[in-house]
C-alpha cells in the first residue's frame, strides 16, 4: 500500500511550519503533527493553522490568555486552539513540552470550520473522534484552556509525547505516521477521561472513598497496558476486594475490572478506526496479550471482531488490503 497516495489529505496542508516531513520512509510526506521542547516558552501558532497541546511538569508562574492572567502550579496541561495564544511568565526556566497538530490528523473529515460548527453530517464514529477534540473546541468551566492535572497522569502523558517524538524522528518503518498519531490519540482519550472523572467524583460528598477511587482511576489510566488484577489493587490500596469494588462502582457505575476492560476497548477501537497499525500491535498496547481473549472481549463490547470493526469504521481502510 502507498501510504502517501492513500492519505491524500496530507497534500492539502498549506502551512510549512509545524510539519514533520518524511525522509527515507515516505520521502517528502508531510504530516501536520510535530513536537518541540522549549524552556519557558509557548509558541504562538495562530498564523500557522495548528492547535497546541502543551504540558508543563515543573515550576509555577502565570499564564496569560485573552486578557486574563491565571496563576498556576505544575503540572498543568493546555489545549490551545487556532484562535488562542497563551503567554508564560515564570521567574526561572522551566521545560515545556508541546505538540502541534491539525485536527485532520485525528480524522480526515475534520477541519477548523466543521469541528467548531458541526453540521450534522458526521457518522457515529466521527462523532466519537470529535468528542476527543472537545478540550480544544469548547470553553467552559468543564473545558478550560488551562487545566491542572495530577503528577502520575502528567508523567504518563509526558511518556506518550516523548514516544511520539521518538517515532517522528526515527521514522523507522512504514507505520511511523500512524504510530505517532496513535500516541496523540491515547493522550486525547486520557484527557477526555480526566474531564469525566473530575465531573463524576466532584458530586461525591464522602472524601475517603472518593480519594481512593480517584487514585485507582489514575492507576488504571496510566497502567492499562500492563496486567492488572483486583487482588493486586486490593493490596496496593490497602482495602479488601469487596469494599474496593463497592466504592468504585458507587462512583463509576462499573466494577474495577469492567471499567478497565471498557477503557482498553475504547483505546483499541480508536486505534483501529483512526490508524492502520497492525491489530497485534494495538492488542499488546492496550493490555491484551492473548489474541483469542482480545477478539472475544472486543466483540462482546462492539458486536464486531477487531478486523470487522476496522473494515466498517476505519477512514483509512483500503478494501482488499
From TrEMBL:
It comes from the Bacteria. Keywords: DNA-binding, Transcription, Transcription regulation. Residues 214-312 form the HTH araC/xylS-type domain. The keyword Nucleotide-binding does not apply. The keyword Transcription regulation applies. SMART domains: HTH_ARAC. This is Helix-turn-helix transcriptional regulator. It comes from Paenibacillus tianjinensis.
Amino acid at each position: 500500500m502507498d501510504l502517501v497516495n492513500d492519505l491524500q489529505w496530507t497534500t492539502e496542508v498549506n502551512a510549512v511550519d509545524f510539519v514533520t516531513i518524511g525522509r527515507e520512509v515516505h520521502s517528502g510526506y508531510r504530516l501536520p503533527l510535530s513536537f518541540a521542547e522549549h524552556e519557558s516558552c509557548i509558541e504562538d501558532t495562530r498564523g500557522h493553522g495548528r492547535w497546541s497541546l502543551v504540558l508543563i511538569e515543573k515550576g509555577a508562574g502565570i499564564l496569560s490568555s485573552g486578557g486574563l492572567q491565571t496563576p498556576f502550579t505544575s503540572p498543568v496541561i493546555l489545549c490551545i486552539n487556532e484562535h488562542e495564544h497563551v503567554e508564560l511568565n515564570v521567574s526561572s526556566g522551566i521545560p515545556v513540552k508541546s505538540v502541534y497538530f491539525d485536527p485532520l490528523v485525528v480524522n480526515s473529515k475534520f477541519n477548523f470550520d466543521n469541528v467548531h460548527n458541526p453540521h450534522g453530517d458526521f457518522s457515529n464514529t466521527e462523532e466519537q473522534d470529535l468528542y476527543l477534540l472537545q478540550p480544544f473546541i469548547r470553553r467552559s468551566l468543564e473545558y478550560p484552556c488551562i487545566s491542572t492535572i495530577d503528577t502520575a497522569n502528567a508523567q504518563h502523558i509526558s511518556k506518550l509525547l516523548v514516544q511520539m517524538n521518538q517515532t517522528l524522528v526515527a521514522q523507522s518503518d512504514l507505520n511511523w505516521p500512524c504510530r505517532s498519531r496513535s500516541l496523540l490519540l491515547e493522550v486525547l482519550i486520557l484527557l477526555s477521561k480526566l474531564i469525566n472523572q473530575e465531573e463524576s467524583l466532584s458530586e461525591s460528598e464522602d472524601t475517603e472513598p472518593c480519594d481512593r477511587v480517584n487514585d485507582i482511576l489514575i492507576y488504571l489510566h496510566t497502567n492499562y497496558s500492563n496486567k492488572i488484577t483486583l487482588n493486586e489493587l486490593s493490596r496496593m490500596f490497602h482495602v479488601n476486594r469487596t469494599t474496593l469494588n463497592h466504592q468504585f462502582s458507587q462512583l463509576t457505575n462499573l466494577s474495577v475490572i469492567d471499567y478497565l476492560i471498557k477503557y482498553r476497548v475504547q483505546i483499541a477501537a480508536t486505534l483501529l478506526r483512526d490508524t492502520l497499525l497492525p491489530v497485534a500491535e494495538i492488542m499488546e498496547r492496550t493490555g491484551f496479550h492473548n489474541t483469542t481473549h482480545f477478539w472475544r472481549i472486543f466483540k462482546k463490547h462492539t458486536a464486531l471482531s477487531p478486523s470487522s470493526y476496522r473494515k466498517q469504521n476505519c477512514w483509512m481502510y483500503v478494501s482488499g488490503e
